Amino acid sequence: MTDNPYLPFPVRIQQIITETEDKNLKTFKLSFLNREDEERFVFMPGQFCEISVAGKGEIPIGLASSPTEKGFLLFTVNKTGVVTRYLHNMKEGDIIGVRGPLGNWYPWEKMGGKNVVVIGGGFAFTTLRSGIVYMLHPENRNRFKDITVVYGARSPGLLLYRQELAEWEKRDDIKMHITVDATDDPSWPYNVGFVPTVTEQKITTSKDSYALVCGPPIMIKFTQPVLEKVGFKPGQIIMSLEMRMKCGIGICGRCNIGDQYACKDGPVFSLAQLNELPQEY
Amino acid sequence: MGDKILKKAELQDVLRALKRTYEVFVPVKENDFYSFKPLMDEEKVDLSFTNTRLSPKPLVLPQSERMFEFTLDEKSEDAHIVKESPKDYPPRIIAGVRPCDAKALRLLQVNFDNPEFKDPWWVKRRESMTLIGLGCSQPCSACFCTSVGCGPFNEEGLDILLFDLGECLLARTLTEKGERLLQLGGMDTDADSGLKKSADEVKTKAEKKISSHVPTDKLREKNVNDLFDAPFWDDVAFACINCGTCTFLCPTCWCFDIQDEVIRGEGDRIRNWDSCMFPLFTLHASGHNPRAQKVQRIRQRFMHKLKYYVDKYSNGVACVGCGRCVKHCPVNIDIREVFNLMNEL
Ligand SMILES: Cc1cc2nc3c(=O)[nH]c(=O)nc-3n(C[C@H](O)[C@H](O)[C@H](O)COP(=O)(O)OP(=O)(O)OC[C@H]3O[C@@H](n4cnc5c(N)ncnc54)[C@H](O)[C@@H]3O)c2cc1C
Ligand code: SF4
Ligand code: SF4
Ligand code: FES
């Protein structure tokens, strides 16, 4: 973060990867223009940044890369409104800005020594990717017990990071349960079914576990009771919230849920914390 | 530090002399309303106002402010790089600030200047300001400052507080900044004990004149979700037309938006006042809106001031009882009634 918390630092778009067959999701690999900015940029998985496109504005986007990946940052962006559309039309080599890291992160300290269940749906898998890459890093893997992932999308072509998913499938230090709502591909090697259903089949214990859950509201709504049924307490269920944001530093007043600013006190909250707050998100 | 005395008519000579060192702002009447404007050379300082329609908040947080600039001109080697806009922060005197509005700046301080993040523009402007307060000998009928930890002669946030003693003004120095200003302005006549006593009387009388009282004692202990789910919000919101007047005028409302503007390839990043009373405030790009309904937005405004702020900062309510929203709401929505409803739930 620079001395002025509103000032983005410049980055170059090093690579643009189209993630999904509908071309609505692209991953932007960004490299720092200045070394000092890179040195100052220290983050943990779960945090986000404001991506600044001069002339269009700023948008909050989760960090998809892990702090263990050096020299670049990854952001996966869904095409929706003004800034995201414009970003999707930019080229490799173009200059944009980044402000951050912002917000809190998944509770890595608390999750140390525990089983970690990662549950993601659709394109909300970005900061979960960051977390998985972080945990799988040789320096960190021993700090966690079993890592289990349930990740689903509507169809195979809508899954993010497909190549990496395939690599993780092959490893024996992470259990992958990839699923799609439906597919007409007879050779589809993974699961078919909604995320909550697959979670119910695969996650049978909450013992010594934390669950990181990110996805569309409907997925969260049906996954929560499934987790509770196998004994997950609200304090063991961790979620990341989205609110409309501007400043990202708890000053502009836009993103509050009760007395919490999603940008600064969040975006990561446990279900126990959320249960205490007004249901207005 | 102490109490100095000056003739009322001298105030404007003093302020005018201080213009050599400071930018001086005073309440100026335009049509029916007062607002803070730079003191002009031939202008008389008018102390007959009740309060300005808009508090001095735009002097710290301008309604529209350029944050950064950039060029999109590909020929420039800095194309697309967002840079700080040069700014200066000349020392400023704001004279005639009512105690409630000074206290409001105090309440905002925790937001703009906290251990994690400092808003550089707000902080520098606030630091460059010296506030000369004017106690309210004649509080208005909509004020309820004494109920919310403030009062007609409250000193928080001020550098000097003026007491109107009829012929003359007693100037009470409250900070070193204030002391420096009195020295520079040549105000060196000490007030004798008789005058000090008169000042105390003026204060006590004014406090007694405040006829509006609201309860706040139970807000802290109430459960936030009980208040959030209270049955009265539909009634409170019923008449609201979402005009945003209340938040615009409120000295403790600070929300802002950030937008980029480009003219012929040269751009600015600008922040503008915004309001939680507008539906766009929370609208996601997906179309989802956590506060799509009017009642949710009204509730947000009152909950923020009377509960969320209270819980977050342990600093009292985010309302100084200035009465602006009460006076100017076109449909007479009255925060004093909401205090009652929330406190007595
Ligand atoms: C913590 C956090 C992490 C996010 N991570 C990702 C991510 O990894 N990938 C991704 O594709 N999207 C992510 N989003 C959502 C993303 O910020 C919005 O889709 C984006 O702001 C839309 O901008 P726009 O200009 O295209 O849309 P417009 O509708 O034109 O939006 C106008 C402005 O409103 C604000 N805004 C609109 N929608 C949102 C929203 N849902 N959240 C916050 N601000 C909004 C932005 O300031 C935006 O510039 C995240 C949101 C949050 C809060
Ligand atoms: S001034 Fe009154 S009508 Fe206008 S938004 Fe505020 S409460 Fe609603
Ligand atoms: S809420 Fe109303 S009375 Fe309270 S400080 Fe704001 S404008 Fe004044
Ligand atoms: S985005 Fe400004 S307070 Fe959260």
Structure description:
The complex is a heterodimer of chains A (281) and B (345). Chain A has 281 residues and is α/β, with parallel strands linked by helices. Chain A folds into 2 domains: 9-102, Translation factors (Elongation Factor Tu (Ef-tu), domain 3, Beta Barrel), CATH 2.40.30; 108-240, 3-Layer(aba) Sandwich (Rossmann fold), CATH 3.40.50. Helices cover 23% and strands 30% of the residues of chain A. Chain A is built from 8 helices and 15 strands. Chain A has helices spanning 35-40, 82-88, 108-111, 126-136, 162-170, 195-202, 217-229, 271-276, and strands spanning 9-18, 25-32, 48-53, 57-62, 73-78, 95-102, 115-121, 147-153, 175-180, 191-192, 209-214, 237-240, 256-257, 260-261, 268-270. In chain A, the strands form 3 sheets. Chain A has a 7-stranded mixed β-sheet, with helices on both faces. Chain A has a 6-stranded antiparallel β-sheet with strand order 4-3-6-1-2-5. In chain A, strands 13-14 form a two-stranded antiparallel ribbon. In chain A, helix 6 runs parallel beside helix 7. The longest helix of chain A is centred in the C-terminal third of the chain and has 13 residues, at 217-229. Chain A is globular. The model of chain A has no long low-confidence stretch (mean pLDDT 95). With 345 residues, chain B is of the alpha/beta class. Chain B has 2 domains: 3-66 and 73-209, no CATH class; 224-343, no CATH class. In chain B, 32% of the residues lie in helices and 20% in strands. Chain B has helices at residues 10-18, 57-60, 99-112, 120-127, 176-184, 193-209, 224-228, 233-237, 245-249, 294-313, 324-328, 335-343; strands at 3-7, 23-30, 33-38, 64-71, 83-84, 92-97, 129-134, 160-164, 168-173, 256-263, 266-273. Chain B has a 7-stranded mixed β-sheet with strand order 1-9-8-7-6-2-3. A 4-stranded antiparallel β-sheet of chain B has the order 5-4-11-10, with no helix packed on it. The longest helix of chain B has 20 residues, at 294-313.
